[in-house]
């Protein structure tokens, strides 16, 4: 995008530059978003339309630019340019990997745990590298924005054009070049709308983000932003100025407007043509705007775009952050695998590479949701560093290829020393600051201890001790008929089955099963009597008419099905172990099976424990009278245990109360167990009614809502509204 302006007459005001207009649009947009809050969310449509207009010409521009400029090269020139490009790309990526290794030093020690993550049982993501990089159908690659495949197609066609001789080649290149110039003119027209587009994007973003979301990720955000600022505004410009004729200030003089646009839009590709023009103007300033240099810029920029850049590479610090956030951290032995996989994963977009890396390192993929939230902030700075990476790579490659590359040793030594000092004086204080600010940050134990029922309560009583129903069944009367006659239903529950049935901090009986019980009471239009189950006596008490139904997390199994009547399953859960954070050998079948011996505790269900133990001949099971024995009374009442066998869903909730523990699945297969409700007196009418009622609640979203709240720790209907001046300061709206 041109920075030149026509001379002004004396006394005339200079026209406002585009970069100034963009900055004004950015700041007014942020102010508007903060003032009006969620009322600005609809401006996202305007922002998306602006980005769409920018994207409209980009891929065609890349295609024709590569074909034209590669077609004009000789084989020797093309080979030299690519060899030098690979050389400097390797140097830049090595710098990026070093930064990714040192950034986690800013994360202080802390303990953490999170609600159950569906990634614990989700299949690994499939990355179709073939489709991403091989243009089997170039038109599909273009329509799907598969940039690597589009670039490969363009390179191969360019090489094909390179082989054509005579007038045919000249005519083809002339026509394609003219069309490319037309595309560039269209793009310049759209760029004039940038201040308005930036305003809409900034307003919608500022209006819909929350301080809560920012607070959760301050360690990651601050660390990444520190790295980006040092790399973008010191390391890369210093590298250019230390090896080429270009001065530090001139690099930003010609690129600042485009960098601001990239920051606002969160995308490099939409202004790639402008970035190319910026570098050409910089070369022109230094009388280096030869035909071969201009052609090299046209080739290198789009050619380098699909390859990893420092912005994308450094964003993978989110992976060690996620590991730290959940309280584990990446072990030293895993770092070589992490670094190698990070380099390969950086070839694809972070939204594809991050889930793959989380899965590779056994980090709950639900952490990806935090990453998605963080992109509201990080995408803006990531792409700026990515753009500076492309600028650096292009300038260094051309300067080395065409003879104006010269290393200034004193400047390199000064730059290297300053860089080490900058990282030292920022990361160490940042670690101290984060350690202080996060010392009381862990709140999930209080969250689950204070959770409330979300279903509208029906009248209920909680009975202190398990006793038979005071109103025995009449002759030929079903349990369902008695419930309707009495106007009450007796619900059996375990007192410590968090998150399915337990007493919260205020002494209220809550949990997934308790919410379901209130839903059942509402459906039957009866009151509830909650009856505690005597540990070890649930089947006997059920047969002796203590409960009409049991609504804690009861696994359905062959053994239980033979002696009890069950409703249809309402939920599937996955078998897992709760183990100490340091016990990483329980995360894989091979390392667990190699243990000489280990002991696991289980509550109530020996048949379920036997199912687990059959995979590990050296394992032994110990029956617990209460789950709390595993956490509190190990040394006094039972032999030392290595793990607690439970469901992953329940285990995750237990780790919220005990963040020094984690859930692990060492089984060679995923063992899923259905949860169902045992019915009193094997009553067919009650069983049929409850099964049908479960089916209705599955379809109308009730079970999903309870699952999201109690198991995943999320409730869409209780989300806090975003802060805004109009609502929270001026109180003009509710």
Folded structure, characterized:
- The protein is α/β, with parallel strands linked by helices and 734 residues long.
- Helix content is 57%, strand content 9%.
- The protein contains 34 helices and 15 strands.
- The strands form 4 sheets. Strands 9, 10, 11, 12, 13 and 14 form a 6-stranded mixed sheet that branches.
- α3 (58-72) packs across α15 (291-304).
- It starts with 17 loop residues before the first helix and ends in a 6-residue tail after the last helix.
- The model is unreliable at 1-7 (pLDDT under 50).
Low-confidence stretches: 1-7
Q: Treating each run of at least 4 consecutive H or I residues as one helix, how many helices?
A: 34
Radius of gyration from CA coordinates: 32 Å
What's the β-strand tally? 15
**What percentage of residues falls in helices of 4 or more residues?**
55-70%
The proportion of residues in beta strands is 5-15%
Structural class: alpha/beta
